[in-house]
């Protein structure tokens, strides 16, 4: 962890408004991460809201999909038609859901101090930070692992200038030979990111790089 991140973490720890959530600052629990995804009403973390969230624990070579955290969230404002076209969640679909303030405590206990994995995971964390600042006066302190960054390092880390770079979610799935899950569903996107993470982290540990020609791999891991 860099010095700046350590400083931010220390500031967050002091600013924490409820010591019942001090577990967020405990040491990372070994070889465990949580794959996270949110569906939102838009792309502005300070204006838009979360309408669906999923988190899946990943340990060693196992994705714990059957015990995933999944929740629909009732936003305070109306869901815009443009966002409905993306995630297909309508007003009636979330009418009986809980507000994010009620969902957040259970999510934080599920995540704990584990690193967060995701595709462009910084966006999901920024969306959560809005609610955390209101509830706990902190930003989420967990380390983040972006699968698009892992993929970039394995495929384009030593690419010559001018190389065409493709970091699209579907392109990464295809290149890794992974199943294409329905997009813009929080659980399916979190599951896809977890699968990417296991393959790419294994490649990183073995020092394996991806050819810049399309490739498929059938590395094995287990769903639980």
Could you list the spans in which at least 5 consecutive residues all have pLDDT below 50?
A: 215-220
Q: Structurally, how many domains make up the residues?
A: 2
Number of helices: 8
First-last Cα distance: 30 Å
- Summing up helix and strand content along with how strands pair, one would put the structural category as alpha/beta
CATH top level of the largest domain is Alpha Beta
Question: What is the global morphology?
Answer: globular
The CATH superfamily title of the largest domain:
Ribonuclease H-like superfamily/Ribonuclease H
CATH topology descriptor of the largest domain: Nucleotidyltransferase, domain 5
In short:
The protein is of the alpha/beta class and 224 residues long. Helices cover 40% and strands 15% of the residues. Strand 5, helix 5 (121-136) and strand 6 form a beta-alpha-beta unit.
Description:
The protein has 224 residues and is α/β, with parallel strands linked by helices. It has 2 domains: 3-145, Nucleotidyltransferase, domain 5, CATH 3.30.420.10; 146-223, no CATH class. Helices cover 40% and strands 15% of the residues. Helix 5 links the parallel strand 5 (116-118) and strand 6 (144-146). Helix 6 (147-156) packs parallel to helix 8 (186-206). It is globular and about 45 Å long. The model is unreliable at 215-220 (pLDDT under 50).
Write a concise keyword list for the protein shown above.
7 strands, 224 residues, Nucleotidyltransferase, domain 5, alpha/beta, seven-stranded mixed β-sheet, 40% helix, single chain, 8 helices, globular
């Amino acid at each position: 962890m860099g010095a700046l991140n350590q400083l931010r973490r220390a500031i967050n720890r002091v600013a924490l408004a409820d010591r019942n959530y001090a577990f967020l600052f405990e040491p990372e629990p070994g070889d465990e991460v949580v794959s996270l995804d949110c569906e939102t009403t838009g792309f502005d973390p300070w204006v838009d809201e979360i309408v669906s969230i999923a988190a899946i624990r990943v340990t060693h070579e196992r994705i714990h999909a059957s015990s995933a955290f999944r929740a629909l969230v009732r936003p305070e404002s109306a869901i815009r038609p443009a966002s409905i076209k993306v995630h297909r969640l309508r007003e009636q679909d979330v009418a009986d859901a809980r507000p994010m303030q009620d969902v957040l405590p259970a999510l934080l206990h599920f995540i704990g101090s584990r690193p967060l994995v995701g595709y462009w995971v910084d966006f999901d964390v920024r969306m959560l930070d809005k609610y955390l600042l209101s509830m706990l006066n902190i930003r989420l302190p967990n380390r983040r692992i972006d699968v698009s960054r892992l993929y970039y390092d394995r495929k384009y880390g030593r690419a010559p200038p001018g190389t065409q770079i493709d970091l699209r979610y579907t392109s990464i799935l295809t290149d890794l030979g992974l199943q294409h899950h329905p997009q813009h569903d929080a659980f399916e996107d979190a599951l896809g990111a977890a699968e990417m993470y296991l393959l790419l982290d294994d490649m990183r540990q073995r020092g394996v790089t991806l050819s810049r020609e399309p490739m498929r791999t059938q590395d094995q891991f287990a769903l639980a």
